[in-house]
Amino acid sequence: MGPRLPLMLKDAGLTAFVAAALGIFIVGFRTVDMGGGKGLGFDYHLVDLLVAVVVIFIGRLGLSMAANGLRWPAIVLGVAMIVAGASPMKLPSGFLHWFVALGGMLLVIRAIWPWASDAMGAAARTPSGLALGRAGSKWFGWLLLAFAVLLPFSPVADQKTMDLGVLILTYVMLGWGLNIVVGLAGLLDLGYVAFYAVGAYAYALLSTQYGLGFWTVLPLAGMMAALFGIMLGFPVLRLRGDYLAIVTLGFGEIIRLVLLNWFDLTNGPAGIGSIPGPTLFGAVFAETPPPGKQTVSEMLGIAFNGNHRLIFLYYIILGLALITNLFTQRMRRLPVGRAWEALREDETACQALGINPTNTKLTAFAIGAMFAGFAGSFFAAKQRFISPESFVFIESAIILAIVVLGGMGSQIGVVLAAVLLIGLPEWFRDLGSYRMLAFGLAMVLIMVFKPRGLISHREPSIRLHPAGSGGGG
Amino acid sequence: MAEPSILSVKGIETFYGAIQALHGVDLEVARGEIVTLIGANGAGKSTLLMTICGNPRARSGTIVLDGEDITALPTHQIVRRGVAQVPEGRRIFPRMSVFENLQMGAILADPANFKSDIDRVFAMFPRLAERRDQRGGTLSGGEQQMLAIGRALMSRPRLLLLDEPSLGLAPLIVRQIFESIGRIAREEGVTIFLVEQNAFHALRLADRAYVLANGRVRLSGSGKELLANQEVRAAYLEGGHA
């Protein structure tokens, strides 16, 4: 292993020492109520700490080995960690098993990454690889779509899966909507959730106060949100970059605070409840019909099943998301869509070509807001209860993260990022509060390995030659 | 000037904040002419060209395009009246393909002309045709300049404004670019207003020329006259024929 080994051991030892010093107060012990008036006592978790420090030592050693080209020893260490994590060895908590095994997996991935990326890079550079890549990305989208359409009929479609599917699709739709603003037009919008809130409250209020149905309100909610987009856009769109981001951030907060404090209209922090769900040709999803209504199971003559409502919601959001996608794809081919992309690249050049930058930005803002409004009224109809709590800044941040991590402007990238960022924390719910680790880890890994997003390749909106023969020169 | 002016600039004064960049500039461009504006760094050449485009706006004076006062119009409205601009530093769209860049140039034009217009641009710059699916950012400097000119031509302009097209290019490429500019004027009948630091090439090409110094027009005359003028030779042509 050469003369570097002592250095690596020293480095790993130092890392483990720092981890131990920091961890002793966080992991090592905690104060517990002894009960019976005996006051507080210490509860020691020194074994947990020891396991963590050992894992960090081995992990650090493996990482430096991998970085210095000693791939096989690193892989051996990683596999050993996975085996140790999966073994029935008695550890104080189940989380430690996960921790050890995940550490091992990361190590193995890190060790084989250079090979994998070299091999993939070399394969992608051959002409057949290029053609395959293009065909692959085309087919991948269709495969994803087929999967999404067929999912409710598959045996895994229990309530939990369908709930997760609806949640992910909502974020896919929001991601696609924001992609118009951020990905295509290049306007950094940190307050996107405000338009989502406008759509949600529009449906909640119009349905509970005026008895309007979901399908009537849906276009209205979209228009309302678009109107808010234009209202915000007019004064601020002459700002660029960071300044625009700050103003949109403020706008998002203003909307939330208005919802919180305008008690007469929005019922303040208590929120709005008993919002009716979407209907299918006028029939409602319920076990017993409300007066004057028919249930879907009566209309179709099938037995009532609570899952039907979820499946119906799933198809609604799938349809809405697909409309968002098709609309965006279509816009990219029209002059206004091309002007968005040009504006992202160079605003001065756009003016020199006779494009009105204010109007172009305003359309991007309004259309992006409109889709957030659609998604918002869907959200209200699904949850049946909304409060300002659902529209906090972190939502804007997550949607933005989906767009950025997906690769600005890439539609498939948004889907992948939404599955990762929304799906992972849900799948890892068993990890309890550690699940946010998975969220953070996914973000960090994407940024380390794919700094320009999952899908960073931009597909030209027009190609002169059939796919595969182009790119010469 | 036998032809009526297509562009007439009178008494233009432009400020950057409190600093005055142009002190009452007058100039005329007749239809079908190549007019060049030369001058040292910081003389106000680019400022004048940008002022014609409405950004920054002139504080006083008038700019008349084909009989219409355009002094107060926003940039995109001026462009819509047939003024195409090749901005300083080329400013092509780096992530878009050559073809898409040209498409952006035609964004205001009648789609029916697109095919013939793009064929004309490709005929003028065959290099662009070879690279039409390549991303703009991966082109060489000279190719990017061709693309910027081609993009401007796609809008079928009456008046083409060029800001330092020779900037940062190799001498051989500079000669090619100037040849193309000459052809655009003679074969396509586009009026050209050219701002240049490369006085030698610009004066050889131009029908008429203006010399700008410290925000004022210092000299004017035909390209040949100025090329022979002692003052011009001393100030702008010493140091070789780049």
From TrEMBL, chain A:
Pfam name, any one: BPD_transp_2
Top-rank lineage group of the source organism: Bacteria
Annotated keywords: Cell membrane, Membrane, Transmembrane, Transmembrane helix
Cell location: Cell membrane
InterPro entries reported for this sequence: ABC_transp_permease, LivM-like
Record bears the keyword Oxidoreductase: no
Protein name per its UniProtKB record: High-affinity branched-chain amino acid ABC transporter permease LivM
Membrane topology: Multi-pass membrane protein
Positions of transmembrane segments: 12-32, 44-63, 69-88, 95-113, 139-157, 164-184, 190-206, 213-237, 243-263, 310-328, 362-380, 392-425, 431-449
Span of the signal peptide: none
From TrEMBL, chain B:
GO molecular function, one term: ATP binding
Stored Pfam families: ABC_tran (PF00005)
Keywords: Amino-acid transport, ATP-binding, Nucleotide-binding, Transport
InterPro entries linked: AAA+_ATPase (IPR003593), ABC_branched_ATPase_LivF/BraG (IPR030660), ABC_transporter-like_ATP-bd (IPR003439), ABC_transporter-like_CS (IPR017871), BCAA_Transport_ATP-bd_LivF (IPR052156), P-loop_NTPase (IPR027417)
Keyword Thylakoid: no
Domain ABC transporter: 7-239
Gene3D superfamilies, per database record: P-loop containing nucleotide triphosphate hydrolases
SUPFAM superfamilies noted in UniProt: P-loop containing nucleoside triphosphate hydrolases (SSF52540)
Family from the record: Belongs to the ABC transporter superfamily.
Name the record gives this protein: ABC transporter ATP-binding protein
Native organism taxonomy: Bacteria, Pseudomonadati, Pseudomonadota, Alphaproteobacteria, Hyphomicrobiales
